[in-house]
Design brief:
Order of helices and strands: EEEEEHEEEEHEEHHEEEHHH
Low-confidence stretches: 243-254
CATH superfamily of the largest domain: ATP-grasp fold, B domain
Structural class: alpha+beta
Mean pLDDT: 93
Number of domains: 2
CATH architecture of the largest domain: 2-Layer Sandwich
Radius of gyration: 18 Å
CATH class of the largest domain: Alpha Beta
CATH topology of the largest domain: D-amino Acid Aminotransferase, Chain A, domain 1
Helix content: 25-40%
Strand content: 25-35%
Distance between the termini: 12 Å
Number of strands: 14
Length: 254
């Protein structure tokens, strides 16, 4: 990708200009970060796994009518995506209490919530992505009323679908983060799912043992991060052609 212009580098991905107008190339890095980038490491093979898992989940969502920015995977680390204007909100959908909601509301981790709870976080690293209310979103015009309604509706649909998909693989979808963007098509603007869906952005627990299979293994110094990501991929049937992590690590190319 050195011949293409780098547009943006984030914590887990590098975005390059795409081969055609309206497209971008997302390169998945092996970097792992937590606590607003205060904790950082490089985990060999993580980018490959996240690319493949996100490709699979975005494709499945597209097949049920959820519009996404995903076009196709280019190689083991890169995918071609639609260019969008990212809305500065993270939509977090929670099915089971874990993470910050436990501290904020005094809930015991693992408590099943009475219904899916959607929380909004303002995308701003310097501020630590603070929790915000609909009043903030409207007052600062981060998203219009119809846009927010569309994002909430799609988030609930994604939750219903992915909960079943993961359950079939004996994985409990605890919570997850989504980002959305505006896609401009002439005079028309539509909201589509963007960023990624992977163990970096979801909490995933084994349904029988409760074993953590997501980024919390890195946050909590549990070890075995890429092995757990590979287990998620194997259970979803993504890495059937990759019998072990060594092969995955050696398969970084196209």
């Amino acid at each position: 990708m050195s011949r293409r212009k780098k547009l943006y580098e984030g914590k887990a991905k590098v975005i390059y200009e795409g081969p055609e107008p309206g497209t971008l190339v997302a390169h998945f890095k092996d970097d792992a970060t937590a606590f607003n980038n205060c904790k950082h490491d490089v985990l060999e093979g993580k980018g490959v796994l996240n690319n493949r898992i996100s490709e699979y989940l975005m494709t499945q969502l597209g097949e049920i009518g959820i519009p996404t920015h995903f076009i196709r995977r280019l190689n083991m680390r890169e995918q071609l995506i639609r260019e969008v204007e990212i809305i500065p909100l993270e939509m977090v959908c929670r099915n089971i209490a874990a993470g910050t909601i436990c501290k904020r509301l005094g809930l015991e981790e693992g408590t099943r919530l009475p219904r899916p709870v959607i929380e909004y976080f303002y995308k701003n690293d310097e501020l630590g992505d603070p929790l915000v209310a609909e009043e903030h979103i409207a007052a600062f015009n981060w998203a219009g009323p119809q846009e927010l309604e569309d994002m909430v509706s799609m988030t609930l649909r994604v939750n219903d679908f992915l909960s079943g998909l993961f359950a079939a693989a004996q994985i409990r979808l605890v919570d997850f983060k989504l980002e959305f963007g505006r896609q401009y098509e002439g005079d028309m603007v539509r909201i589509i799912l963007a960023d990624e869906i992977s163990p970096d952005s979801c909490r995933l627990w084994d349904m029988q043992s409760g074993k953590i299979l997501d980024k919390d293994r890195f946050r909590q110094d549990l070890g075995g991060v890429t092995d757990s990501y590979a287990e998620v991929a194997r259970r979803l049937g993504i890495m059937k052609d990759q019998p072990n992590l060594t092969v995955i690590r050696n398969g970084d190319g196209g």
